[in-house]
Amino acid sequence: MFRSAQHDSNRVLRQPNRSLTRDRQSSALIGAHMSIRGGVSMAIERARSIRCTAMQVFVKNNMQWFARPLTGEEIRAFLNHVQRGELLSVFGHANYLINLAATNPQFHANSIRALAEELVRADQLELPFLVLHPGAHLGAGEEAGLKKITDSVDEVFRQIPKVKTKIALEITAGQGSCIGHRFEHLAHIIANVREPERLCVCLDTAHLFAAGYDIGNESGAKKTFREFDRVIGRNRLVAIHVNDSKTARGSRVDRHEHIGKGRIGLDAFRFIMRTPRFSKIPKVLETPKGEDLREDVVNLRKLRALANERV
Ligand code: FE
Ligand code: FE
Ligand code: ZN
Description:
globular; binds fe (iii) ion; binds zinc ion; disordered N terminus; alpha/beta; 40% helix
């Protein structure tokens, strides 16, 4: 049986404190991607300064292939941070440079090494999973790309047998030669790797919509999630990126927009915020913002309002 992505429920789903359990509004598992500028533990403070209960982070500078290892001090500062327990779900997102389907041998070798190193860092930070875009085939074709991704996932996991952090394959918008814009692509990877128990899935509303999934109304959203359950399996879902889309449904162009300001409309977000099956699934924003996180505050307020709306 496929176990939930958490390492150990005590470690990840910590006891919420009383101020978080007061009502449904503040106990919703929602938050945003947070910058690690100044060190990984700084992300915790940023997230809690706007009352996030869930957070996504990069595990190193997102613009570089490699980084010096995390020091014991950095790891302890993150794990033992006084506010760490106020975040009920924290997980990672892999570097955007990584492409497991890369056709250039050096680029591909870098991708394997970088992903293995990031999974080690994520494991040191006790993150249950690291979100990864499957890859872009760069003209080699979908089938060749899927095979390369599957082999690469096997190679990465072979190098780090003890790492508990899973890879969460993210649905993509299907821009350019990006693979992963159909549930079938993710299902194919999961079905063909040697250790499928180390894989799970992250959905992104902007990507689903740009890829052509009809999530813009409640019946379309229901249908999309039924299809997810049939093709991938509902237990694989570990996180949802809640982003509106600047681009039209089926455009295959990935441009995130603030909640309610894009083409998806509020129905999809209302459905995600209110459906009981998603109550334990962390929902994080990846929308544009400045250092003061003001835009996140507005988006989170909208999401919480959708969760609490009386119908
Ligand atoms: Fe992503
Ligand atoms: Fe995303
Ligand atoms: Zn995106």
